Each structure stands twice: as C-alpha cells, then as structure tokens.
Amino acid sequence: MTEVTTLDVPDHVTDDLRAYAAAMRAGFHESPMSEEGLAIWLAHLQADGTRLRVIRDHSRPFGKADEPVATFASWGGTLNAGRGMVDANFITDVTVQATHRRRGLMNKLMLHDLREAHERGDVVALLTATDAQIYGRFGFGVTATARRLEIDSGPKFALRTEPYGSTAFAAPDDVVDVRRHLFECFHREQFWSVGRAQHYWSTGFDWHEQRATPHRAAVHLDDDGEPDAAVVFAIESDHILVRDLLGTTRAAEVELIRLLAHAEGHEKIVWRHCFDPRHPITWALKDPRIVTTAKTFDTVWTRILDLPRAVAARSFDRDGEVAVNIDDPLGYAAGTWRLSIRDGVASAEPTSGEPELGMDIATFSTVLSGLEHVDTLASAGLVHGDPSVVGSASRLLTSWEPPVAASIF
Ligand SMILES: CC(C)(COP(=O)(O)OP(=O)(O)OC[C@H]1O[C@@H](n2cnc3c(N)ncnc32)[C@H](O)[C@@H]1OP(=O)(O)O)[C@@H](O)C(=O)NCCC(=O)NCCS
Questions:
Q1: 195: which residues sit within 8 A by CB, 6+ positions away?
Q2: Per-residue model confidence as pLDDT tens for the chain (409 residues)
Q3: d(CA 66, CA 73)
C-alpha cells in the first residue's frame, strides 16, 4: 500500500489525471475540478514539467481501489541566492485522504521526493505551507513572508511622490508576455526570489470556484515608454482586489496603486500578496495610516539539500568566520561546518573543530535567507551558542536586502 508511483504527465486528460485531481482537491476539502479547470491544470503541468506522485491503496472499497490516497507534486526551478541562481525543487499538492492520515504516507512521499532532488543535484527544495507545523521536521524553514494590505482609496488617498511615465489598461491575456518579462527581470535581480509556476501566467480562472472570472490588467510605462510594472486585479463589491502586482522597481508599483486608487466606485484596494516587507507604499502616502496590514504570513519555506553550494551562492555583506553545528535528521547537511566569508564570497567546509553555534537545518535555512537575525533566533531557543558569538554571527550572516519571493505555489 505504501509504494510511491510517479505518473507521467499525459498529453490529454486521462483517468489517472482525473483521479489525481479528485484526490488532491478532496485532500484540501475543495470541490472537484471542472472540465475547464482540468484542461488548464494539464497545460500548467506540461509547461512546468511537473512530477505527479501518488500512493494507492488497492484494498479500498466502492470502486476506489485504483484512486490515490495520497498526492504530491514537484518540479524544477530556480532560487536567486544573491550571487547566482541555484537549482530548486518546488513542492506542492501534499495531501493524504482523511481515511489514511497519520500512517506515514506524507512522510514516505516527502522522503522519496527529497531523495530524488538530492540525487539530481538540486541545492534546495521549496514549498509554501497551509499549516506551519508540518514541514519543520523535514528541515524546511521559513525564508520569505508576505502581507495582505488594505489601502483606503477614499478622499484621504494622496501620494507624496510625483507621477512619472504613463499607465494603460489592458486585457490580461494581452499583457502575459510583459508580465513574464517583468518577472524575469525581478527574479534576476532580487535576493531570495524564487521562480514562478505556470499558473501565474494564465489569469481569469478562479481555482476555488472552478470557473472563469473576469480579471483586468494595467501596465505602467517608464518615461521612455518601457513597461516597468503590471497589475492584474478584480473588481469586487466594495473594493479592488490586487491579484498580482509586480514591477522592476517598487516606485513603478506605487504608480499602479495610484492608478487603481483613482478608479471610481470603490472604498479600498486589497493587495492580497505584498511580497516585499520593505515596500515603500506606506512611506509614499501622505497619510500612512490609510494602509492596514490585515495579516502577515509565511510564504516560501526552504530546505537546504546541498549546504556548501547554498552557502557559496549566497551573497554576504561582511567578511568573517564561524563554525556552526547543523542538526539534520535527514543527514544531507548534518555536521559541523566552518563558514568563511572573504570579499563577500563564502565557503562551507566540514570541520572536526569545536562548533561555536548550533542550530537545526530548518533554522539555518531561515538564517541563510536573511529573513531573521541569529540573535533573534537564539532568543527564541532555536540557536545555541555563547552570546558574544551569537552577536557577531548575527552581524556576519545578516543580509541588508530582505528576502523577497514573489510566488505562492
Ligand atoms: C498534512 C497531511 C498531508 C499529513 O499527511 P499524513 O500522511 O497524515 O502525515 P504522516 O502520517 O506522514 O505524518 C508525518 C509526520 O508529520 C506529522 N503531522 C502530520 N500532519 C500534521 C499536522 N497537520 N500538523 C502537525 N504535524 C503533522 C505527524 O505527526 C508525523 O510526525 P512524526 O514523524 O513525528 O510521527 C494530511 O494531514 C493532509 O492531507 N492534510 C490536509 C491537506 C494539507 O493541509 N496539506 C498540506 C498542504 S501544505
């Protein structure tokens, strides 16, 4: 019953694909996929090169013997670690049917997929989690966050900044190439940016409702007429819902918020995923209190599979050395490593010397991403070491640029 099977993504909707979709949607307590949803999803799987993994229980009654009791998907992409891209294994669709939970099926799928990723030479595995308590045990640590912002677009809305360039409304389908280009530019430049899956580029389908929904789009063009930001949004009853807003500069994104605020007939703009924790929108408003953070949440979790390559690809702002003991139950990064940084370039060598700091691999992922300081994590009981070393390691391993990952998957 616990055999992991990897399905080939077919060129048309097959019974196996339907059964996977049904099990995955049921696992998330979602309604079944519509025919339209299945066709769009298949196109996404093909474009992403997704590996679909299942476990079946052939003893299941009522005609369900060949349907999966557990689903798991992954595909290959990249993470920008600061000094370059590293190969990343993106994970999603982790579900086990309620009848089969707590028997180790997720554990089996995860270990299988991580082992393959490690053998392929992927440097990290990435996922976004619906529950914060599931993935730490596999070595995943939080490495990026997002906020849901609500901006009062009534009479108090006024920006300090002067408008520049121009804006244009467009049908979402007509700006897919522009959005992809903007994302590629962003991904190339942004520390801890992770690649986007295909679903970001097909708009106008509501996955929850399983039907087409009208979306709109707008683009900002700089003073030379080059697109530098794009937004996809929906008009809801009393607000504008920003589904995706991304530019090559944050100033260009502010210009698109200006455009949406000036549209009539709504009371607020709801930006569901503001990925940059230092986004200037609040500072750019004459009345910063018209922005409310409705919630802050973790987005990308990272699992380091190859510690020396992850460290070597990460950019650092200071030079120095520290010996860190890493606790990794899966073994990929376990041991004591001497991290040496010279001219911003780091190396990690195994050492038999005494460690100065100790932490698990999930915590090390958070540290490497620059999301949190070592001393904060030490105060939280996640890093162990002499306070003076904790302090110097905090300064050594911090990043002036926060991790910004513009992707949920
Ligand atoms: C989360 C889910 C996939 C777990 O599947 P499962 O097969 O029951 O998990 P396993 O039996 O392999 O459990 C592995 C470990 O994770 C723990 N675990 C499982 N689900 C957990 C949860 N929701 N919260 C905390 N720990 C959890 C188990 O206790 C076990 O720990 P152990 O190794 O220390 O004994 C399943 O509950 C599910 O499908 N939930 C609904 C969909 C969902 O939320 N998916 C996650 C999407 S990000």
A1: 77, 78, 79, 88, 90, 187, 407
A2: 679 999 999 999 999 999 999 999 999 999 999 999 999 999 999 999 999 999 999 999 999 999 999 999 999 999 999 999 999 999 999 999 999 999 999 999 999 999 999 999 999 999 999 999 999 999 999 999 999 999 999 999 999 999 999 999 999 999 999 999 999 999 999 999 999 999 999 878 889 889 998 899 999 999 999 999 999 999 998 899 999 999 999 999 999 999 999 987 889 999 999 999 999 999 999 999 999 999 999 999 999 999 999 999 999 999 999 999 999 999 999 999 999 999 999 999 999 999 999 999 999 999 999 999 999 999 999 999 999 999 999 999 999 999 999 999 9
A3: 18
1's tokens:
């019953």
Q: Which residues line ligand 1 (CB under 6 A)?
A: 27-28, 94-96, 101-107, 129-131, 133-134, 137
Lookup result for tokens 């699992």: 303
Which helix (H) or strand (E) segment holds residue 320: the answer is strand 320-327
From atom 28 of ligand 1, which residue's Cα is the shortest distance away?
A: 102
For tokens 């300090």, what's the residue? Answer: 160
Q: Under CATH, what is the fold of the domain 4-122?
A: Aminopeptidase (3.40.630)
The CATH number of 146-294 is which of 2.60.40.10, 1.10.10.60, 3.40.630.30, 3.30.70.920? 3.40.630.30
Q: Which of 30, 97, 102 most suits a substitution to test ligand 1, by most atoms within 8 Å of the C-beta? A: 102
Quickly count: other Cβ atoms within 10 Å of residue 261's Cβ.
Answer: 20
- Asked if residues 131 and 259 have their Cβ atoms less than 8 Å apart, the reply is no
Q: Which amino acid residue places its CA nearest to atom 48 of ligand 1?
A: 129
Domain with CATH 3.40.630.30 in the chain: 4-122, 146-294
Q: How far apart are CA 287 and CA 398, in angstroms?
A: 32
CA 317 to ligand 1 center in whole angstroms: 38
CATH number for the domain whose boundaries are 306-397: 3.30.1050.10
